[in-house]
Design goal:
- By secondary structure, the chain is α/β, with parallel strands linked by helices.
- Helix 5 links the parallel strand 4 and strand 5.
- Helix 8 packs across helix 10.
Length: 312
Amino acid sequence: MSWAGRRLLLTGGAGFLGQALQRRLFSLGARDVLAPLSSDLDLRDAAAVRAYLEKHQPDLVIHAAAVVGGIGANRDHPGRFFYENAVMGIHLIEECRRAAVQKVVCIGTVCAYPRNTPVPFRETALWDGYPEETNAPYGLAKKMLLVQLQAYRTEYGLNGIFLLPANLYGPGDNFDLQTSHVIPAMIRKFATAARSGASVVELWGDGTPTREFLFVDDAAEGVLHAADRYDGAAPVNLGTGEERSIAEIAGMIAEKTGFRGSIHWDASKPNGQPRRKLDTSVAEREFGFRARTSFDAGLSQTITWYLETAAH
């Protein structure tokens, strides 16, 4: 694909993944990237989406906009997380179909997988059960967009693909303790404790769940590889194929932030899904994507960015 010759609409361009996608696109020579803020384009308003597409006529749409958060945010706002994630995607895909957009790339979520999916998660297991309850509304809302894309491919010939990234992390992440995911939340807690000389950091759950994390710049590369080279109806995982326990990650972050105290695990708080590890063979086979950033290196970059940029 010649990125310089494409007009691309990127939703969620101001978000964590969206900013990484813009950096990567510009490095590849893209010059016509539309990345409207939510104040400029309300994806919940079908008429607004229709007017925007009619005016700008993109030939490629990457839908990275989402209302996201950690376990606490999902638990507190299940209605909002379901409605807004579903309706934004439903309106956008419908209007892309009406506007004859050449290709739509939809970013899903690992939260769409059933709670007890056998490890490693294979794309064929996506419908084998109900998602983990703490983030099921979010995961199901995103999964409905896969259904829509596949239905539109069958009836209208819309070329829409659906990607399932692992949990993302990296510089520029959201470090708000009320809405952040596990890695930025722990970085902030341990860095604050190290700076203040606190002797204990309290974390949710018991530390036993495992997670797979994908460095945000690697995720952006994977999305653009798929946009360039993949036209299949089946969903595709994006990840590293590696899992680590929350307790192991907490220990790594404590060491890298200089925290020398103890960790108290609050087992009264939810653990979330027991294990997460993706089978990433389809992405490598279909469009040549393999994550390049090791977890240790990515974590160090993220902590350095936080300490130098956000922890003030």
